[in-house]
Amino acid sequence: MDAKICGIKDSKTLNYIINHDNPPKFIGFITDYRKSGRFIEFNNLKKLINIDKKKTNFVSVLVNPENETLEKIKDLNFDYYQLYDVSPEKTKTIKEKYKVKIITALTIDSKKDVEMYKEYEHFSEIILFDSKGYEKSFGFDHQLLNNVSTSAYKMLAGNIQYNDKLDKYSKITDIIDISGSLETSGEKDISKIKIFLENINKIKNEN
Question: Model-level pTM?
Fold first, then answer.
């Protein structure tokens, strides 16, 4: 099981994660959702991610992005665009135009929400099943994913705790996506990140 740490906004935390002995496969940056306390202004974002990513993939997290935003970020150091509230048609257009890998983010409250993955799986590298809370880290019934069969990788988010017994998720997802529980007073806490990455690595070694 791989990991994604989302909502990074400072170079100290980013450098710690990238240079960790067991870094996550993905690091996410809130690119256009201004309501989030993890949002980064463009100039700061550009400077922050203009570094050697080493073993990680950088993910631009976008909520129904405007064309102006997509044009602005097209040359930044991103490997994936994580898209919320984007139609299948627009998702395909973004993928083709910007030659970028896609994480389709679906917010889940019911089985009907889960089934939406079928409209995106053939042109998304990863399907993210998230809660309805966006940055608020709400939870949802993860058992709704038990019968998801997709050629795309599955990513799971939504009120997952950094010190959970994470192996309980291994049967329903390929990637754990975590953000809020790695924070103390709204800022990323390196001690919590350390525990989370150790937990993920332990699961990998057991498998």
Answer: 0.94
